[in-house]
Amino acid sequence: MTPLPIVPDLAGLADTPVGVELPRLAVGEPWFTCQVAGLQFYDYARRDEDLDVVVMPANGDVLQLVRHPENAHDRNAIEIHWRNTRMLGHVPRTVACDVAPLLDSGAPARAYVVDAGDGEAWSCRALVVGAAAAPWHERHMRHVVNEALYAVPEREARLHRRTLKRAERAADRQAAMRTRRLRQAVEVLMTVPFEPELPAVGSHCDPETLARALGCSRSTIVRLAAGAGIAVGRYCTWLGITPELDAALRAWCRAPRSKANLGEVWGVRHHRQEPPYEWARA
Prior knowledge:
By secondary structure, this protein is of the alpha+beta class. About 35% of the residues lie in helices and about 15% in strands. A hairpin with a 3-residue loop joins β5 (about 80) and β6 (about 85-90).
């Protein structure tokens, strides 16, 4: 969003009639810009049959503001003329209601073209300079001040929130990548044989300790023990290590495992959440 200007942008127009206003605008002369209303109903962008040219003002041209209190639709109507003979349109009604009383009281107002437009309705913009522009100039300056006090911190807050969202998305992508790599590693390791550290034959051990040593579930230990001829009850807390059970456990470790639940393998999401961005209005 472009900051509101303190003076109108007249770049490239210094050598046009509006250029005479630059020193006055620099010292704070009231001004405002507005669209020209009703372009499609009057002479704008129409061909002059007598001169065989299209009525199209140039940027920087002088305009004339003509009060028309007898207008049936708006007693505050202000007509906008070009070269004193061609009516282009009106000052918008919302602006005219403030400017017309000042014009009626004798307040001066000078008008110029600052954007000639493209021939379509509402495409031409006018600059009004002088005491009659004071109400809308004051309104514009209030917007400038409010933007300086509030809008800039708000934009910074929005930028900070967007930065946090991008950081969150980056953290999610990295976590997904770590998850894929971790799952690939698990799939590979499940096929690699290994020699477990088991209790000595003839000793006793609880099924949970054996499960941790083999990296499997308690039910797998119960199944292997049953294959070795040892019945393990639900509440069994000690298991005798026989030669047959020792051989069964080591055979299981040397065989590929294929029942890993890869859906439960997740990469850790490393991202430190920043505190909320706070700002106070001055």
